[in-house]
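Here is this case:
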Amino acid sequence: MSPYRPMMILNSLLILVSLILPSSAQSKTLESQATNPMLLELYTSQGCSSCPPAERWFTKLKQSPDLWSRLIPINFHVDYWDYLGWEDPFAQRQFSHRQRIYKHLGHSKTVATPGFMTNGEQWNGWFYRRSVPQSDDKAIGKLTADISDEHAQLTFQPEHSSGKKTYTVNLAILGFGLKHKIKAGENRRKTLQHDFVVLDVAKADLNAQGKAVISLPDVNAFHAEEQAIVIWLSEGRDPSPLLAMGDWR
């Protein structure tokens, strides 16, 4: 037998294995646009009887031609209605805290569900069937994210010198098509579907060079077959998004 034949067989097996096994080093790059999209936040709860209509409207935004380019919807489930008898599996205390900070800073007048924020300002247009407002064209800078399976490397280049400003980069994993049969509380006996649900958020402060590394949250426990990733920049302790970008994961 030729001495090269075992090596040929080994190489063939390695090629076959590489075709069968999925790559664990899939990467994706997100870059902010010249025109900042509108980050539309919904605050909701499975324990709130007024919230299902707002969530059904949110689901329709999946078909928007402006999705990810001019409109980025994110759905925060709060925990302050859990005491009514149903514990929302998507709710986190930090999401409720985020809504309360908006009120504390004067960006909103109430802490309630359903509640909407557009680029950090309270928006009541949904209740009057108005269209989501468009974001202004104010130039903030360029945000770039190189995303792997486990980490995101962020770089921010401000349009103008930022001086002593401190910036935080927020990264959220969203889940879609999540259905739950509610067994207690105000929505008992209803089956609810949720989209654009914030499954978890990770954040990091930018260093002096405008860079940060974020470990992607582990959201496997939610079994969301369809996911997206949304990243936004905020300043100091104010959660208002200055610059946002998102896409399917």
About this structure: The longest strand covers residues 238-248. Residues 25-129+139-248 form one domain. Confidence is low (pLDDT under 50) at residues 6-25.
